[in-house]
Amino acid sequence: MSDFLELVYDNRKKKYNVLIVDDEALARTLLMEYVSKIPELVLLGSCSNALEALHTMQQQKVDILLTDIQMPDITGIEFIQHLNYKPSIIFTTAYSEYAIDGYDLGVIDYLLKPISFPRFFKAINKAIGKLRISNISHKTAEIEDPVAKNEQKDYLLIKADYKVYKVDFEDLIYLEGKQEYVTFHTKQRNITAHYSLKKLIEELPEKQFIRIHKSYIIALKYVEIIEGNHIIITGEKLPIGGTYREAVMEIFE
């Protein structure tokens, strides 16, 4: 199975955390009952006010937020305007005049009380659909970006020639940029692929690699000689660019 198909399959098995916020006990009870009927949903909590909900959201990640608008102290609109992150939001309210405000805030749906289960189910499916698309897009970007972004990893995945090469940092000697391509000079082979040195230097461990020129990034462990405006690394003589000379010299002083 391809990576993409595996993502789609796993995505369909995913559970989504739901938080209910409403100052009316009966409304919360009804929504809790509705949530319990949908296998993909996990109820994180049921809060009577926005402050309580904010505390819950600081402790656990909420995927879908069901919130009333007219609540004491902080309204539902004020509540979502102050969130640190935005889950998929569904307004539940008895007042239709707030619908435009809700959509302006990027709310997924607007449920007018009394809420029927079929209407609730439709809104939840809309929210889950958006979450699934977002998750697949995020994961696909990670697959298509073969540069490992996790600082704990000790290798790069380089996509070239319809293959993916795993190159340990220990084996990477230097990188040579030419226009839109980079040649990775390693102990085993040279690999040329469509990359940017600017992006790569941000991904490589700064204690192991340094940029010495607009066209070169080197592994410090393989440096043999610094001679004038050049560095000799495994027998190759590479130039030190004027912009980078001070930073290079500081490391070797």
Defining traits:
253 residues, alpha/beta, five-stranded parallel beta sheet, five-stranded antiparallel beta sheet, 15 strands, disordered N terminus
The class by helix and strand makeup works out as alpha/beta
> What is the rounded Rg?
27 Å
Could you give the order of strands across the largest sheet? 2-1-3-4-5
Let me know the largest β-sheet.
5 strands, parallel
Percentage of residues in DSSP E strands: 25-35%
The N- to C-terminal Cα distance equals 52 Å
The geometry reads as: elongated
How would you spell out the order of helices and strands? HEHEHEHEHEHEEEEEHEEEEEH
Structure description:
- Helix 1 (3-13) packs antiparallel against helix 6 (117-144).
- The strands form 4 sheets. Strands 2-1-3-4-5 form a 5-stranded parallel sheet, with helices on both faces. Strands 10-9-8-12-11 form a 5-stranded antiparallel sheet.
- Helix content is 36%, strand content 31%.
- Strand 6 (155-160) and strand 7 (163-168) form a beta hairpin.
- The protein has helices spanning 3-13, 25-36, 50-59, 76-81, 99-104, 117-144, 197-203, 242-252, and strands spanning 16-21, 41-47, 64-67, 88-93, 109-112, 155-160, 163-168, 172-178, 181-186, 190-194, 209-213, 216-219, 223-227, 230-233, 236-239.
- It is built from 8 helices and 15 strands.
- The protein starts with a helix and ends with a helix.
